[in-house]
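> call design_seq(struct)
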């Protein structure tokens, strides 16, 4: 599929049914009917950046900040492992408190469990990425957010587009499975740039792609902007499945936030991964990237049971392997 064809699908809703069914077929043929669960731990909401859309941005003073320290973090991992998770995702704001040394220690401890480990902690130096990999990290999530460089600059006053690309290149080079993705519905974002996002995922041969609608947060400069369109995000996700075929694609939490059945719809339109929160509920409200987050008061066990039921209800099953990309 070329840019013109991608753009055509993104611009109309008349072919949605066809598109979602085809993405579902590709998903079935290339990655099968299993769904990989990744246990998400949001271990710090402290962030030095100022992404215009994100509730964790440093300029937001209307938020109670927290950090989970090593012992508690390892307890959380242990609990997730006992619930059956085969991948743990460590996510945080860009928090320099967690030095290379601290993180290497944490990674090594976590890797003593029989699980794959994903990091999602933002932009770091190549040397740090190398140390994390050496310590045992398997995967890294770093969304490009948008490939429209002009829009990227507006949305990220404290970041550089070139450095973001550089980080993704470094992660690939170091042998991580690399996850990226974008936000759908940012102010002034065009259909053409969303098509470019999808082609970018293909170009860098992303191993995982997470796509979600933008949801305005009341304590950010974008509080009065419109929410992203669910169907447009779903179409971008389906097209990504069709183009990249064997990659891992999460049904994102943001999709469920704006559509009560969002993750199931996504799983039937190309997605094969879900990332339930396995952290302590006292932190969930505080990790408010966007408002209306689901499962705010649900513990790890409850989320696990809930998602298991949902997955079974559509004749899919939970994978028992680590869930690396099937090449
Ligand atoms: N709405 C939806 N998604 C958001 N993210 C950050 N802020 C928002 C928002 N307001 C996404 C970004 C980031 C991921 C962790 O959360 O794409 O990469
Ligand atoms: Fe933290 Fe964007 S506000 S990385």
């Amino acid at each position: 599929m070329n840019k013109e064809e991608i753009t055509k699908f993104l611009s109309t809703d008349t072919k949605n049914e066809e598109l979602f069914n085809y993405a579902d077929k590709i998903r079935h043929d290339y990655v099968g009917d299993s769904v990989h669960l990744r246990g998400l731990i949001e271990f710090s909401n402290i962030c030095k950046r100022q992404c215009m859309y994100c509730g964790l941005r440093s300029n937001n003073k209307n938020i109670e900040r927290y950090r989970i320290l090593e012992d508690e973090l390892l307890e959380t991992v242990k609990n997730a492992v006992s619930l059956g998770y085969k991948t743990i995702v460590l996510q945080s704001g860009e928090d320099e408190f967690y030095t290379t040394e601290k993180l290497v220690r944490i990674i090594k401890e976590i890797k003593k469990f029989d699980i794959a480990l994903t990091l999602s902690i933002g932009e770091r130096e190549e040397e740090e990425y190398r140390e994390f990999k050496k310590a045992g990290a398997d995967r890294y999530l770093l969304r490009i957010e948008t490939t429209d460089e002009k829009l990227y600059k507006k949305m990220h006053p404290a970041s550089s587009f070139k450095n973001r690309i550089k980080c993704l290149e470094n992660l690939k080079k170091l042998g991580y499975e690399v996850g990226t993705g974008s936000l759908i519905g940012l102010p002034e974002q065009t259909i053409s740039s969303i098509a470019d996002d999808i082609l970018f995922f293909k170009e860098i041969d992303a191993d995982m792609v997470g796509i979600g609608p933008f949801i305005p947060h009341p304590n950010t400069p974008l509080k009065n902007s419109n929410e992203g369109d669910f169907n447009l995000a779903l179409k971008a996700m389906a097209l990504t499945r069709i183009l990249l075929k064997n990659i891992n694609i999460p049904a994102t939490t943001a999709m469920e936030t704006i559509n009560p059945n969002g993750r199931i719809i996504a799983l039937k339109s190309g997605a094969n991964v879900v990332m339930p929160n396995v952290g302590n509920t006292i932190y969930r409200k505080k990790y408010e990237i966007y408002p209306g987050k689901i499962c705010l008061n649900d513990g790890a066990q409850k989320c696990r049971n809930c998602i298991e039921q949902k997955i079974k209800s559509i004749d899919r099953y939970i994978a028992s392997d680590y869930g690396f990309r099937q090449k």
